[in-house]
Design goal:
The complex is a heterodimer of chains A (447) and B (232). Chain A has helices spanning 5-21, 37-47, 62-74, 78-84, 94-97, 103-107, 117-120, 134-137, 141-146, 179-183, 196-205, 215-226, 231-253, 260-271, 277-291, 326-341, 349-360, 368-374, 383-418, 430-439, and strands at 28-30, 33-35, 51-55, 86-87, 99-101, 113-115, 123-127, 148-151, 154-157, 162-167, 187-190. Chain A is an alpha/beta fold and 447 residues long. Chain A folds into two domains: 5-271, P-loop containing nucleotide triphosphate hydrolases (Rossmann fold, 3-Layer(aba) Sandwich); 277-439, no CATH class. In chain A, the strands form four sheets. In chain A, strands 4-7-10-3-11 form a five-stranded parallel sheet. Chain A has a two-stranded antiparallel ribbon with strand order 1-2. The longest helix of chain A is centred in the last third of the chain and has 36 residues, at 383-418. Chain A is globular and about 70 Å long. Chain B is an alpha/beta fold. Chain B has one domain (18-222). Chain B has helices at 19-45, 55-69, 76-87, 97-110, and strands spanning 115-119, 139-143, 155-162, 175-180, 196-199, 213-216, 219-222. Chain B has a seven-stranded mixed sheet. In chain B, a hairpin with a 2-residue loop joins strand 6 and strand 7 (219-222). The radius of gyration of chain B is 22 Å and the shape is elongated. Classes of the chains: A alpha/beta (447), B alpha/beta (232). The A-B interface holds A 275, 277, 280, 407-408, 410-415, 417-418, 425, 435, 438 and B 3-9, 11-14, 16.
Chain lengths: 447, 232
């Protein structure tokens, strides 16, 4: 397939959804192009098998945007997506989310699992995830993380999947999302109000018949998913129906989704995109500020550093928790996918700067004192994304001041890693201390 | 373990130099060149590790010293550094104070500065012959004590010694001013034909003086009624 072919298809999807299904205002800009963050990052999540948490007021398109994206990219009719969604509510059970015993077989003394549509199809939508009680959130940890679904003694492993979960703002019916679950989401975006004029247009143009519905294919897909065949065989059969739905979309909507093989090729192209040195250095600097603690060795949620530390001006002093190893994975995946989408050869600083706030927003636990200082500031984004964006820009400023020296420090560290006699470069940032620890040099600043 | 900085292996490392590094490096190179000049002088002038202090040998040694330093770029600080190097056996193969003094005198006479101060209080060896042929418009201040033949052949310059000197100070002096804060030894001003010697302390003895003036404290002790000019 020629270069840029899949990207053009994805752009076509973006434009179609933006013009017909999810009318929106652009809220981000990269390389001179403006995009809507919820839609763009939704598409990137679908293509890179990501996990996206969508927040927003009720009725502003959190769930529907995810459904459209999943339906078009994976070529599943909308009815199948709806039939596979997991609604979050306190009475939700493992049997409804993952699977249940086959009652007929059970009466014969055989233990067999009937897997839920949610567990089987690659487009997974959890609606209002924060209405799941905290105890029940643990049930989906493994599935969300690795696509492994276990019930009784059987396991179902998805070879590809994207997860979209929506989340309402806090009200009486919501619960906190437990940290291990929230950390498993790659990004957090807000589905925003499009403004009164676009909202009026949405109201006027709303149709009862949805172009992404196809009752016949939906019925056949439901039959396949209910069938007794092995999971892998079911997926092959489902792909045949997806091909037919893909043809339907192409003919009637002018849209081309991506077949399974095409999605694999896209992933393979995305994985090959490397980080340039600036993006590499900046990401390391960001991670250093979010994981370093001069006093306790690393950030830990249960240990809080006090005022007067040498590194008081850095992010490490404002956050409670430590950046997990999923953070750099999320940054890499999304920055690579964004670079691929824009047909850039390498991931550069612009890609990383745009993506980082969305990967950080839900993961950082800010100290209360810092939160209360920032929450009153004027902004357009929700507080979480705003603070993550501010943090990213703060680190970017520090990076800009010492980019050359930092690159050199990494280069020296490369040599010092294997040769004891080379001394690492000193600098006033946690990254330099982290480098010293990596190469086994002593930390000379007294605690 | 995999090197976590692998991505940066192609980046060249610039050698970081702070200004002090450059200064020190330059100083070391200059000192090395001065030392090489001194060693050359010794090889030619003191082949058997013996150097006889004679009028002709001093002139010859000075001529050779002038050649050794004519392409050198140095400052008064480098001269002082050389004096300390003379004191350290690891930098000097052997020290013979006569040629060393002639060599230092040549360095002072050709130094770019008009006023040179050498702080030699911590130098253990007593350098001889310092101030030899100090020309007009040159001022050499030595903090510390000197050996024999200091300021000999002084040729219009000003030599100030903030300490004491040994024998034959100001011998053969033609013109200029020699001031010694403390004491002088025997044969002071031997053969001097002009200029002035001022001594703050005591003079053990005067040499055969032809001309010029010598003061001990405020008192003119040459020429005066008791000490007349000597005619060779």
């Amino acid at each position: 397939m020629q270069d840029g072919h899949y990207q053009k298809r994805l752009r076509n999807m973006y434009n179609y959804i933006s013009d017909n299904l999810y009318l929106n205002r652009p809220d981000i800009e990269i390389k001179g192009e403006k995009f809507n963050s919820a839609l763009l990052l939704g598409l990137l999540s679908a293509i890179n098998r990501g996990k996206e948490l969508i927040i927003g007021e009720p009725g502003l398109g959190k769930t529907t945007s995810a459904e459209y994206v999943g339906s078009i990219v994976y070529r599943y009719p909308l009815g199948v997506i709806w039939g596979s969604e997991v609604p979050g509510h306190p009475e939700q059970t493992e049997e409804k989310i993952i699977g249940r015993p086959h009652l007929g077989e059970l009466s014969k003394g055989n233990e067999k699992v009937v897997w839920s549509n949610f567990a089987q199809i690659p487009v997974k939508v959890v609606d209002e995830i924060n209405r799941l009680p905290e105890t029940k959130q643990s049930m989906i940890l493994n599935g969300v993380d690795r696509g492994n679904w276990e019930y009784l003694n059987e396991t179902l492993i998805n070879d590809e999947y994207s997860l979209f979960a929506t989340c309402n703002y806090q009200d009486r019916g919501t619960n906190t999302i437990i940290p291990p679950l929230i950390d498993r989401f790659d990004i957090l975006v807000e589905s925003r109000h499009p403004g009164p004029n676009i909202a009026f247009t949405i109201g006027m143009e709303a149709k009862r018949d949805h172009p992404l519905r196809h009752p016949e294919y939906e019925k056949r897909l439901h039959e396949i998913l209910r069938g007794d065949e092995a999971y892998e065989e079911k997926m092959l059969l489902a792909e045949e129906i997806s091909d037919l739905f893909g043809e339907y979309m192409k003919e009637n909507l002018g849209l081309e989704g991506l077949a399974k093989q095409e999605r694999r090729e896209s992933s393979s192209q995305i994985e090959k995109i490397g980080f340039d040195l600036e993006a590499n250095s900046f990401t390391r600097m960001m991670l250093a500020e979010l994981s370093f603690c001069h006093k306790f060795g690393q950030k830990r949620s249960l240990e809080q550093c006090e005022e007067g530390c040498h590194y008081t001006g850095y992010l490490c002093h404002h956050v409670k928790n430590c950046a997990s190893n999923r953070l750099p994975i999320s940054i890499r995946n999304y920055a690579q996918t964004l670079a691929w989408f824009l047909e850039d050869e390498e991931v550069d600083l612009e890609h990383v700067r745009l993506i980082t706030p969305y990967t950080l927003a839900h993961r950082i636990q800010w100290k209360d004192s810092y939160l209360s200082k920032k929450e009153g500031e004027g902004r357009n984004d929700p507080l979480q994304i705003y603070m993550a964006r501010e943090a990213t820009e703060e680190v970017f400023k520090r990076y800009s001041e010492q980019r050359e020296y930092l690159t050199e420090a990494f280069s020296v560290a490369y040599r010092a890693f294997d040769q004891d006699e080379i001394a690492p470069l000193d600098g006033d940032h946690p990254i330099y201390e982290a480098i010293k620890r990596d190469i086994g040099a002593k930390d000379e600043k007294p605690v | 373990m995999k090197n976590p900085f692998e991505a940066f292996h192609n980046i060249g490392v610039r050698r970081r130099e702070i200004p002090l590094d450059t200064i020190l490096k330059s100083k070391e190179e200059t000192l090395a060149r001065i030392l090489r000049g001194y060693e050359d002088l010794l090889r030619n002038e003191a082949k058997d590790l013996v150097w006889l202090m004679q009028y002709s040998t001093v002139i010859k040694a000075y001529g050779m010293a002038e050649k050794r330093i004519e392409e050198l770029e140095y400052t008064a600080e480098d001269i002082e550094e050389f004096c300390y190097a003379l004191d350290r056996s690891d930098q000097i193969p052997y020290l013979i104070t006569g040629p060393a003094g002639v060599y230092i005198s040549a360095l002072c006479n050709y130094a770019p500065e008009e006023e040179i101060t050498l702080n030699l209080r911590d130098v253990n060896v007593k350098i001889n012959l310092l101030g030899y042929r100090l020309p007009p418009n040159k001022k050499l201040v030595v903090n510390g004590n000197l050996g024999d033949f200091s300021g000999i052949g002084l040729d219009g310059g000003e030599l100030i010694v903030e300490g004491s000197c040994k024998n034959y100070t100001g011998a053969g002096m033609k013109r200029g001013l020699l001031t010694v804060r403390h004491n002088l030894g025997f044969n002071t001003g031997h053969g001097m034909t002009g200029g002035e010697i001022h001594v703050g302390g005591r003079i053990k003895g005067l040499g055969k003086i032809v001309g010029g003036k010598i003061f001990e404290g405020d008192q003119l002790i040459f020429p005066n009624e008791g000490v007349k000019p000597y005619y060779f």
